[in-house]
Amino acid sequence: MRPTKQEYQRVRLLTIHIKHLLFLGFLVLMCFIGLLWFFRPKTSVVENRDLTEFPTLTLQGVLDGSFFSGVATWYADTYPIREGLIDQNAKLQQLYGIRTQRLVTNGEKADAIPTGPVDLEALAGQTTEAADTTQSTAHPAPSDTAAPVSVESGASSPVTTDPQAPETTAFSGHGAADVTGELEKAGNNIYILDGAGYGVYYFNEKNSARYCLLVNKLAKNLAGKSQLYSMLCPISAGVMLSDEVRDSTGSSDENAAAEWFYQNMDPSVKTVSMVNTLRAHNDEYIFFRTDHHWTALGAYYAYREWCKVKGVTPHELSEFQTYEFPGFLGTFYSSSNKDASMAAKPDTVTAYIPNGTNQMQMYVANKDGTFTEYAWRVVNDVSNYAKTQLYATFAGGDQAYNYVHNEAITDGSSVLIVKDSYANAFIPFLIDHYEYIYWIDFRNYKKWCGWAGIADPSISALVERKSIQDVILCQNISIAGSSSALDVMEGIFK
Amino acid sequence: MVFSSLIFVFLFFTANIITQAVVTDMRKKNIVMLAFSLVFYAWGGIQYVPLLMGMTFICWYSALLIARRRSQHDRKLALITCVVLVLLILGIFKYTGFFLRNVQLLLGFPKVIPEIMLPIGISFYTFQLLSYVIDVYRGDAEVQEKYWLLLLYASLFHQCVAGPIVRYRDVNQDILHRRVKMTELSRGITRFTVGLAKKAVLANGCAVVADTLLAAKGLAEQSVLGTWVGMIAFTLQIYLDFSAYSDMAIGMGLMCGFHYQENFNYPYTADSVTDFWRRWHISLSTFFRDYVYIPLGGNRCSKGRHILNLFIVWGLTGMWHGPSWNFILWGLYYFVFLVIEKYLVDTERIAGPLRHALTMLIVLFGWVLFKFEDTALLGTALKGMFGLNGNSFTALSSRLVFQNNMFFLAFCVVAVTPLGKTLGNMLKNLSQKSTSWLTVYGIWDAALPILLLIMSSMALAGNSYNPFLYFQF
Q1: What's the order of all strands across the beta sheet hosting A227-233?
Q2: Which residue among A12, A30, A95 places its CB closest to the CB of B10?
Q3: Boundary (domain end) residue, out of B125, B157, B177
Q4: Could you say which of A48, A394, B178, B469 is the most buried, measured as most Cβ atoms within 10 Å of its Cβ?
Q5: What is the pTM of this model?
Q6: Number of domains in chain B
Q7: Hey, are the CB atoms on B464 and A103 less than 8 Å from each other?
Q8: Of the listed B158, B281, B306, B321, which one is catalytic?
């Protein structure tokens, strides 16, 4: 029925009024939500980072506008319902195209892997003098007595906290992880296929040569004191994908790369090849779909390879009690901007509890630069943790300095694991092979030394202080080619 | 502050429209508007506020002299002094580095080139102020006796930093006696939210695609398809981005009684280069037409002189976009095509669809020139588009970027055409014919802005990625 002119105008006027009210009402509502400063989050669990803080007021900042742009970023980053809005946006973006396959990278390209040993210094672009200067700083090994606080005290001071105490969840992932997050290279380049992420690896010739130089320098400094092992852990593309698919993602052949690293290491370094073994098991659940790490099962196969090199008998999986944490949505989930196909098929974290002891000590970084020592568990119950943080069950997460005294063994044997987060799933298997097990996260160990008053943060100084017999470098192959990670390693690999 | 940010929409702008509605006295309304505009401008750094105020002062005082002096000589002197002074200031801030870099390249000195920061929006407000002084001189605009009202014109946050370049004579009446009509408020709301969503959802989405495929790091290895899809996404992005800002400016203006001219008229539907420039950044083209091209003699002169006039205008248009050779090249690229269309090829004789396709191809290659300030990268991109970098036609990475965004890009292609507007008008016409259509139209009209606001908030919340291409100009 055709509306009369009057009727038309009446309805239009009513509509326009409703439209104005809705629009203004929505603006005022969102403005009000924005003003609820006490609801503003400080951290994002999903993104595993501290949100932007309100900027400090400086004259320079006001003059050049950086203070105001900081305020705008803070306002958006900590907007009370931000995460909900982002979730909805991720759902909307599923409609942008066919998204069963994606490649999320930072534009890196792989170098060709050279064959055989090379002139590392020429490749790394380093002069001999530069290498020598860094070496010379390794000499003095001051004693622990200079330390203002008594740390590194072995099992003598069981400090603080029941592992189940709720406040300890403060470092269940966030806070501790943000120290190391920016150096966690393996999570940056991802190929996603049907709800599963694959860490893509780009071999970098220059940086890889630099890594070998660092390892060789360390081997030299440890000669006669302790045995050095190198375990370069593959990331998932090189293990889980067929050669053809892996090549199409631009990812390098991780076996060829690992073997190149090993060929260029000092002959005194015992190297653990594991890529082909893991590939042989790639029909099993050895890498997470939503996270860049391997599963404990993947780490277990690597552990068996290490046992071969070390010449000890590995324990069978059936010998361990297990924990299971379902619903895990890891780093790939957040770095893919909450890929909906991942959310539909979350991971389960299975953890194997060491038999000798599950007790450990660790130092957790506080925001003010200090550290607190905690009595913790090598495999911890993380069923109350956020679904993005379940990998934190292993070895206390990524803390600077950790140790275990396994009283089930009394031969005085000792090991130091120099690690990134890949080693976390590996460490529980190692506990049953030594009496003293130390592990340091290379990314924040130097900082911890600074706090603990240890003047020489080198690995060799630690080995000397603790009379450590074996040193295992357990790092993922991607981090061994990252220049920012290498800068950090430079400070302790001596 | 950028329009497409949560703090702008939900704090600054919300406070602004509420105060504009609550304050009824025109003088107070203008004081409040000026305060908001200065805060908005200062947000980019307080250090640039004196510059804006100073340039406004020069133009205000010159216009007063022009209006008050009887002698033509004095009036002309005041005008020339003002124009030279203002252009000099613009030149110092915008082109010193560029000029010295080129001198250094040719002569080897100076050794050190000073880093001069470009004040936000200087290219836009300088042109606005110039148009005011020239219009007063020509008798096309009334002189503004009050400095602060001219400052309001120059700093008005709707258009101060990103256009459109509003003429004083077009908004003089609105500054002095604006009234908000219900229907205009309604249109303004729709226009603003369409602009916001166009920027936050569409332009930023295209930017992600373009930046992934055209990243400097992997450009030499990019597949042919990847480079093309990247450039198409950039072509979509630059229009959606820039026109979104004009939409928001026009919409916000309508919401508080200002009427700004349209700045775009679906430029990607153009069927010739001449037509494209009638539809693209209209306020800039008309500025050059009225204040440079016509005074130089326009086309009412010899063929040689006409070509020279076109050369000057397009050289300047290129330069206005940025202190870099690629922008000048981009301007002159259009000069060449405009001369071809004027004197060599009768475009009317080419079939419609082909004419349109050719125009779009010319525009697309124009954007390649525009995008890459680094000449080496520009060469790599152009070679890449013709498969001369030795890369395959397609690769998994570029195929996936395309596949992951194909519906989105298709939507953006539709969004740059008048289809949405046509459908809206059809619905409006139908609503006059039946009560059920009237209800549908009412629901659509009232719900659309909220839907767009929600979608924009969703996109902006997680969007650290939010560049505005035209800020640098």
Answers
A1: A270-271, A227-233, A470-476, A414-419, A436-441, A401-405, A359-365, A371-377
A2: A30
A3: B177
A4: A394
A5: 0.81
A6: 2
A7: no
A8: B321
